[in-house]
Amino acid sequence: MSISMALFSSPPPSPTARSPYPSLKPHFTHKFSLSPQPNNNNNNKKHFLFPISTPKASSDNGAGISGASATVDEARAEVKVSEAVKESSVGPNGAVAVVDGEPIAVTKFVDSKWVDGTWDLNQFEKDGKTDWDSVIDAEVRRRKWLEENPETSSNYDPVVFDTSIIPWWAWVRRFHLPEAELLNGRAAMIGFFMAYFVDSLTGIGLVDQMGNFFCKTLLFVAVVGVLIIRKNEDIENLKKILEETSFYDKQWQAAWQDETSNSTKK
Amino acid sequence: MAYSLCLNYSLSSLSTNRQNRYLSIAAFTNPPLLGRKLRVAVIGGGPAGSSAAEALSAGGIETFLLERSPSSAKPCGGAIPLCMLDEFSIPLHLIDRHVTRMKIISPSNLSVDFGSKTLQPDESIPMLRREVLDNFLRCRAQSHGAHLIPALVTHLEVPASSNSPYVVHHTTNNSRKTLAVDVVIGADGANSKVAKSIRAGNYACAIAFQERIRLPDEKMEYYQDLAEMYVGGDVSPDFYGWVFPKCDHVAVGTGTVCAKQDIKVYQRGIRERVKDKIKGGVVIKVEAHPIPEHPRPIRVRGRVALVGDAAGYVTKCSGEGIYFAAKSGRMCGEAIVKASQGGDCMVNECDLMRGYLREWDNKYLSTFRFLDLLQNVFYGSNAAREALVEMCGDEYVQRMTFDSYLYKRLAHNNGWEDVKMLINTIGSLMRCKIVGKEMEALKF
């Protein structure tokens, strides 16, 4: 009996990463039962262990295997076997299906919640409402998988999910608000110290500073600076962007420059 | 942003200085030619050269069209915009296929149908074979009086004084010949000899690599009127891969600027992506050719002008070159006819710069700049490509794209829709960038 599994790839701790287990032949695909594992809250390490319901399950190298599911109707065999380290926060499904497929190496992204080319939002419910954060996580994982293992496009099960399905406030709440908090904090700190500094130098209090045009300009520069320059690398990036935007134009205008050498070249 | 605006302003003020100088020189009239018509050699008989030769000979100028291999099939996409059919009076029987649907497919295989709802019933993208189109244009130029010389040009002798002719050295059937002319139009493509002779400078080239594959009938049925574009890091790092239907086969290819040595890897990538759809196909030809990325530093020098690929008139983002080649050839030819008053006077460099280069830049510079902006924004990373495909799902975007491609016009009739499109673009880019950043974080 052999197993074929579709796994998510990632830099693995063990040397057997990304190579098919030599003894596996892609005849069967099993749906594995997943159980959520306690997350260590460190975002950078995501470990995931699945108990596998077949004897060939080799968890000896700490491999986690993603929920590979194929129904009996679809005669597709998944083969690509690689180390998988992945995080998931929900774990449904215990059904095990056996598929008889031809031994063609076909890689496909499969997930129990990925139905008909889009995420089945009903399966992401938490307390009666859709848990958008986990939808975003699932999509990130899917795209990461596809980036590592580009998939053949197919006419029969087109992908129809796009990020605009997720409402704007879910994005704002998860990504914009923490960043905004950070930047506002920085701006406040800079503002406080600048006000103190100017006050100690000139004796003008905060209210009077705001009446002065120069101080208002400094304030504006500080706010814009905090927004634009978040890391030291940003300064270099900005310079590069400015150069790039004018580069193409310079190439076109080149025909109009440099006429001094022209008149002698007839 | 302010910095680039200042840069633009200073560049344009520099250029107006040069233009002003040329405009003032234009007050001098050119000396009339006594007893003969102006002689022009057009080197290269593709769309650019043939259109130039046609415009010149229709205007009464003695034209010589030199083409080294009149029957070769050039490796090319073969798609032309609708406006070219009208402007260049191309008969409909030359068209192999009318593509009415396009699919653009993102790295995560999100595929968007372009055109099934937004193309009018009489609109399509005509696909032709280059050898058929080039032959037609050449014959038409000949019928207007151009002399077609099947010869390979070896080099162009630039004269020392402004009255001596240019001497074109060419070989026909192993015999060397020379041809003395007054004006030369270089339409000899990306590796232009004319450009080298006038020291026009170099340009960066992308390489386009494609395989022509003959498919079994039922697979060909799928591509009956459908062209596909694939974007993704596996297909190309800075361009796209394509499947274009041709007369009885498909062309599967990809291109890149920055990673030319890995082009085979990317070709394998696109083959993988379309594996199911081309299963059972047979590769009948493999071809590659360079595509210029930007214009050469000098496009007109002395009485020599470059047109088409030799000048570098290929748009970024879509890689379209046939229409611009033909149009630039025609504009250059017409400029020469006008400046020489039907072939009776000599022309000089300012005539070419004013009548051809300035006209061309005025008309098409903004198009080229805009497409360059699109390429920089959307082709840079997988996240941006996802955003591009998402944006393409919007009907307004599709309509604008077709209008600007098929008719070469930017119909800004709806300001509110434009604002909405801009907001949607920014939204898509931001969302996809966030997903991209999360993907990066997932690695560690």
From TrEMBL, chain A:
Record membrane topology: Multi-pass membrane protein
Annotated compartments: Membrane
Domain of life: Eukaryota
Keyword set includes S-adenosyl-L-methionine: no
Entry keyword Secreted: no
Keywords: Membrane, Transmembrane, Transmembrane helix
Main location: membrane
Segments of this protein annotated with the region Disordered: 1-43
Gene Ontology CC terms, in alphabetical order: membrane
Protein name: Chloroa_b-bind domain-containing protein
Organism whose genome encodes this protein: Cephalotus follicularis
From TrEMBL, chain B:
GO cellular component, one term: chloroplast thylakoid membrane
Membrane-crossing segments per the record: none
Example GO biological process: chlorophyll biosynthetic process
Gene Ontology molecular function: FAD binding; geranylgeranyl diphosphate reductase activity; geranylgeranyl reductase activity
Domain of life where this protein originates: Eukaryota
Family: Belongs to the geranylgeranyl reductase family. ChlP subfamily.
Name of the molecule in the record: Geranylgeranyl diphosphate reductase, chloroplastic
Organism for this UniProt entry: Cephalotus follicularis
Lineage, broadest ranks: Eukaryota, Viridiplantae, Streptophyta, Embryophyta, Tracheophyta
